[in-house]
Amino acid sequence: MRRLLSLLCMMGVAALLGCGGDAPVFETELTPARPHLTYYKDGHGRYVNLRGINVGGTSKVPRMLDVPLDNGRDWSFVGRPFPEGEADLWMAHIRSLGFNSIRLIFLWESVFPDAYGEPDEDFLDYFEEVVAAANRQGIYVVLNLHENLWSRHLYALFNERAPGIRGDIDHMLFAMLPCAPGDEEGSESCLTRKVVGDGAPLWATELCLPEKDFDSPYWGRHHAIGRLAEQDPRARWSYVLMLFDTLNTELQLIDTSTPEKRQAFTDMLDEMQARLDVLGPFDYTESTDMLPLTSWWENTILSLDISRCYASFFAGDEVFPDRVVENGELKWRSEADQPDSAYSLKDYLQSSWADAWGQVAARVGKYPNVIGYDLINEPAITSVMLTVVALYFELGGFDDTLKDILNALINYDISDYVWIIDSVFPALSDPTKGPCEDRCARDAANLCGAPCEDDCDTFCYDEDNDTTDETCFDLCRRQVAECSARRAGCLALLSNQIETCVDYCRDPDRDQAVTKLIYLLKFLQLLPPDTSDETREAWGMDGVDAFAAAGLNFGFDTSYLKPLFERTAAAIREGDDDAVIWLVTTGSSGLQGDTWMTMPANIDQAVYAPHWYPDIYPFVGLNVPERDFEVEEVRYREYADELARHAEFAAYSLSNIPVVYGEFGTYWNYKYRGEEWPEFGYIQSRRNEYRLSAEILNNYYEAFEELGFGNFVWCYTTDNHPLDGDGWNREDFSLVEFIREDLEPNRFECLRTSLDEGRAACLRLAEAQADNLDDNGFPAHDRCTELLCELPARYVVPVPDDAPEGYMAPRGHMAWMRPYAKVLSGKPLYSHFNSDFHYYDPDKGIPDPRREFKLVFAGKESDAPTVIFVPTAQYPDGFYVWLSDGWAAWDAQNQELYYHPEYDKPGWEHRVRIRPPIEGQKTEGFDYFIHGDRVVTGS
Amino acid sequence: MFATNGYSLNRRLAALLIAAATMAWSLGSTADATERVPPESTPVDERELSAIDRVPGVAHPWIWRPAPEGQGHVSFSGIFQTLFVYQNDSDFDRTRPYYDPGGQHVGIMGSFFKPVVTVRPLAGIANAPELEVVWDSEFGLSLWSVHDPDQYDLGHPNSLRFSQRQLYARGRMWGGLLGFQVGYQYFTDPTAMFLGHWIGAARLWTETSWGRLEIMGGQLPDQTFEGLVLDSQEKFTRDAFVYGGLAELTPSDHYKLTLGLHGLHDAQLVGRPLDLLTTTLTASCDRGFMRWGLQGAFQWGRQKHGAQGGDEETLAWALQAYATVLIPGTPVLIDLNQLVLSPDDTHDRNNHNGAFFYSSKSRSRTLMLSEDEIRDRGRNYDQRMGERRQNFYLLRGGLSLTDLTVLVQVTDYFVPSVTFGTAFSLEKANTGGSSFAGFETNLHLRFLYRDRLELHLAGVALLPGRALSTFINLYDRTATEPQFMLESSLFVYF
After folding, report:
1. Which band of pLDDT confidence, cut at 50, 70 and 90, is reported for residue B63?
2. Which of A8, A554, B1, B492 shows the smallest number of beta carbons within 10 Å?
3. Exposure string (b/e) for A226-249, b if CB count within 10 Å is 16 or more?
4. Backbone angles phi, psi at B489, to 5 degrees
5. Chain A contact for B36, CB < 8 A?
6. How does pLDDT run across B298-311, given as a tens digit for each residue?
7. Is residue B408 part of a domain?
8. CA angle, corner A610, sides to A609 and A613, nearest 5?
9. Sign of the C-alpha dihedral computed for residues A390, A393, A394 and A397 taken in this order
């Protein structure tokens, strides 16, 4: 018996020989997340806390191709946001920065760049791969069909190298003009930059602006410039003088109080004249009426062209009832072959737009990481301009009303400046020159020259031979024809102005300053010069239902946005029958003031996704400098009330669906008050280590943590440029910067030294660079900073070889790279992180809880763990973890703490507290101390 | 020996343990079987130790009770103790706390009273079986600076502390053929390394000439307390049970071999039950002037959802060896103890756990590295090097604790001793990158009067290592400043 038992024991010995332990198994795959009441929940029943980032800024701008496509197109959106084959690299980077989701933008033009019904399959293939890469890297995706100012084919050029100081009025005015002759780069190229939209393809824009010549060489110059660029210098000078002096009267920016200053002003006007000489006149139809405002969104209000396009899209069947599209061609309904089956403008455009969504949904709907379809970006439909102009035509003009309005608005007496106005119409003001109408005709003659006399017979008659010199005659006739054509063209160009002039002569109030101002605006075609059919057609206002246009201003969301959402949701559902629709609104209420948009009919899973930005935008103007602040102006500000207020709509009107902020963010090129004014903001921001931007983002994230809202910051752009930002209107919002060796060699070297040799070597390099001054005496922005030296290597990505050499690195990250719970096993109650930018109330005997993270959630609704992102950037010396119950496992590779709560009692609140070692703080009772990949379990 | 792969080490050493136990069992059967005495009635009989040490207070005085005077119907016994403790610091780091009005030293004075009431309902009845009800309660440790004897509200935090320790009925019938002990009691497995808890349990045993067989079942206190009312909230399915049995063989008067198998089923956490089986094997020898013992425990278990990504399987072991020798012809006693607990691998909460579910009860005579035999305050460092898992301690770094004591009975009234102890972890990756935990030396002076009155004076010095300071220090985990303790205690036994 004893021997048998001994044998059994020995067999047990053999059975005990085995392998050691492997690393814990962490989550590698996402499960679909769907709305549940006011939350998002994943496939394990956990609450999902969306902390995302918009990808990317350059997606609004296509890539230019070295070799055009077969159809001749030399641009493409393939490669936006990332070059092909790099999606996994950048998605992994996004995850390492702490984001668990992205708002991935694409454009209508990306899907249908060439024509209606012809999707770009290459782009769809590429885009699907981007979504698939996000899935592989554990990133949720919300898709957004992005647009701003309708389309990138509507833009306004300006000269950023105009004379004067950025922000001054003379610089702004010069900025709208081409360069003077003899400038280095030539005339045309001096319009170096543009303010541009994005979204709709060209073929769609042509439908909503059929009278425009998109191929015109003048495209992008405001049509008022075309009015100014008349042949007659005197007329031009007069208009320019009038316009500038009028503005100077109001704004007092250019001092003309002394003869010397007046001369300087006149010299400036002469310079402008020279520049206009280069350009030449052009018609209203040869350009758009967008202004190159740095605050580009104001074009939504001011541009008639943009208003018309939005009106065509949202209400083309009402505002342009007689315009139909048949076989891709815009026609009058009366000219259509089959008018009853032809598309209205609205249906044609919206069906393509919805189809763009359908195409994308069919590709990506199968991926579990797709959690939302954000239907439209910031619909800011204002139809004021369209309404005013449409009613102007409809009512045959309402100059009297306009005069009354202007008289009411203009609170000062401009009668002192009547002499300026009179200088525009010297003949008009001089009663000795005859009746007013006659003076109009004489002005026309003066402007366009006398009629071309056809005296070639006389001129070429050879008396000696009693013959007509045929050569001479031919030449003469050609000259006459050219002259006549020029004059006819000039007269045609001026016909409206002549009519305006005649109208002016007939206006009983013509001596009033306001009246003269109105007629000036008409001369410049900032107002319709008249209400003739020709003018109406030139302005694209033929067939407009003015009252339908007016109706766009009331209850827009309910009447026009909601039907679009319903149409689009149906298209998306065909590709993804479990789609979650993300909704936004314009906030436009009904006529009674309380007809808000309610839930669209066919959408059973929805999220409300507002955007909000604080007062950070540049002031109104052209090529204005970046905003400047002092740190004290932006730090410790409370954004929670504003964010909560903007989110109220979901509870009040949209059946309490979840709220996730689709966009927020800050510039990264602020100027710092007190520093050199002419210096670009990006230089000052680098020198100050992005302090202002970090403070603003910290304000945001503290508010989001307080409110418990998911959020997507704008943005992540891999090819962000120091000066040009993301290449779209020079916006620089990216949380990562591309430190290029060719553009910023010192910073590049600094980062390379830090990565290869360590922090100490980097700091020595920084010290050596500290005294480097550029030629202008400004301290160089391109040098090391301590923050750059301390950047952990895991957050820095060398850019792949086919791009300029450089590193992609986060900036201001101590504000936004924060611990947070990515998914929670129970209902979230409270979460907060004290960054280095947090305001600390003093407590005697208690050290400031710097970089403390707290999380409280109720109940245990899932056996799956709560996953907390804990960035090592915030805890270089390690961190302590205190748990109310349960245990945790640490995934060092992904910087994630997997917390397994244990208590299952109703009403129990699970608590997690994380702190770094803080001098003077007691750490007793800790559950874990984690440093790198080393874990110490406490008692 | 100290393999970096703790889990592999566990398996190999467990194999060695079983092999050694098998061999020992084979050898034991050949021992002298002529001298047999009736087996003792408790797994750990402290009176054996005290017979050599002649110091009843050493090693768990609070579970010891003097033999009651006479065999009357009701008898009283107990311990009264007043304690003074002073330490230069609470950790090994001299960094001043943020709020530090009083300096870094720590100290207490307090009193403790442990009355034991024994009721023998059958006392005086001829030929009646042995039956007694034992009530063991404790007042304290109440600190003079905290607990207020003028506080009438028992629920107030500064009222004197009072707890019930043991409350059980014990019987022995038919000459030991049947014995039982039911109620709240201090229960240990044969090694006390796994189970050394005060629990509610029922034990049943039978004693024969060759040894004893015992089975038991009990419950560990509920960590997720549901309430007192017997209603729908009270369910066995949410409780923790211990169960097991042992076979104790006494092949001779001097040798004893015990084989135990005890299990734990802990279902307190919803959806995460823990099942653990511990096999123990002890071999001991008591030759009067010499005592030695070898104890081994092997654990296997599984906790559902106890690991990241799945269940956690436990495979762990523990070893304890001791030898106590009274040098013939001298009043010098030498005691040597060695405790080894298996470590976990370097991945916390993976599917494998190699750390031993430890009761924190050991034979070590160190006063800081292990429990303080003068007065256990529950803050011994072998506990604090581990994490608390339900009712047990898991030292993921493992532990090797060695101590050597030299005790001299100078007179009947004065018995000084000096102890040297050292501790190491077996997996330094789990203890801050260092294996050395600490070196302790203590000088322990005992003044005795008739086994009823004792005065203890102890001075302790502990030189810590980073394997210990990592867990203890409040700020700088790498600091290893020495720690000193002065302790004195007055015992009265009755």
Report:
1. very low
2. B1
3. bbbbbbeeebbbbbbbbbbbbebe
4. -150, 140
5. no
6. 999 999 999 998 99
7. no
8. 140
9. positive
Task: Tell the burial category of A777 from Cβ atoms under 10 Å away from its Cβ (0-12, 13-18, 19+).
Answer: exposed
Q: Are A19 and B7 in contact (CB < 8 Å)?
A: yes
Query: Could you tell me the residue range of the domain that residue B175 belongs to?
Result: 6-225+234-316+354-393
Q: Which residue ranges form the domains of chain A, and what is each CATH number?
A: 317-350 (no CATH), 818-937 (2.60.40.1180)
Domain count, chain B: 1
Interface of A with B in 40-99 (CB under 8 A): none
Task: Look up residue B215 and give its two tokens.
Answer: 């089975």
Query: Is the residue at B407 inside a domain?
Result: no
Ramachandran assignment for A886, one of left (phi > 0), alpha (psi -120 to 50 degrees), beta (any other): left
B16 contacts in A (CB within 8 Å)? 13
A647 is written with which tokens? 């989110």
pLDDT tens-digit map of A373-403: 999 999 877 788 898 888 888 877 767 776 6
Chain B CB within 8 Å of residue A842 CB: no
The answer to whether A877 touches A926, Cβ cutoff 8 Å, is no
Residue A28: what pLDDT? 85
Kindly report the nearest CA distance between residue B72 and chain A, in angstroms: 46
pLDDT one-digit tens code per residue, B153-180: 878 888 888 888 899 999 998 888 899 9
User: How near does any CA of chain B get to the CA of A874, in Å?
Assistant: 18
Neighbours of B90 (CB within 10 A): 17
Surface-to-core class of residue A439, CB atoms within 10 Å of its CB (0-12 exposed, 13-18 middle, 19+ buried): buried
How many Å apart are CA A773 and CA A720, to the nearest integer?
A: 25
Whole-angstrom Cα Rg for chain B: 23
* Chain A contact present for B5, CB below 8 A: yes
Please judge whether B396 and A927 are an interchain contact, meaning their C-beta atoms are less than 8 angstroms apart.
no
- Please indicate whether residue B419 or residue A531 has the higher confidence score (pLDDT): B419
Mean of pLDDT over chain A: 84
Strand partners, A937: A928
Which residues contact residue A150 at a Cβ distance below 8 angstroms, ignoring those fewer than 6 apart?
A197, A199, A200, A205, A208, A306, A309, A310
Q: Per the structure block, which two tokens stand in for B413?
A: 């009234």
**For A486-489, which contacts have Cβ atoms below 8 Å and span 24 or more sequence positions?**
A486/A231, A486/A448, A486/A449, A487/A448, A487/A449, A487/A451, A487/A452
- Integer Cα distance of A620 and A195 in angstroms: 13
Tokens of A29: 């795959």
Residue B349 placed within a domain: no
Beta-strand relationship, A370-374 and A140-146: parallel
What is d(CA A930, CA A794) in angstroms, rounded to the nearest whole number? 17
| B128 secondary structure, DSSP code | P
**Using CA atoms, how far apart are residues A538 and A212, in angstroms rounded to an integer?**
9
Domain CATH code at residue B187? 2.40.160
pLDDT, tens digit, for every residue of A750-774?
Answer: 999 999 999 999 999 888 877 665 5
Q: How far is CA A212 from CA A281, A284, A537, in A?
A: 16, 8, 11
Whole-Å CA distances, A205 to A113, A281, A332, A343, A596: 11, 24, 17, 16, 30
Reported ipTM exceeds the 0.90 cut? no
| pLDDT tens-place string over residues A185-233 | 544 457 778 899 999 999 999 999 999 999 988 888 887 777 665 545 5
SS in 3 state form for A389-415?
Answer: HHHHHHCCCCHHHHHHHHHHHCCCCCH
CA distance A741 to A720: 14
Question: Which of A902, A929, A930 to mutate: most B Cβ within 10 Å?
Answer: A902
Alpha helical stretches, state H, A542-676: 546-551, 556, 562-575, 631-634, 640-653
Domain membership of residue B399 (yes or no) is: no
The residue count of chain B comes to 494
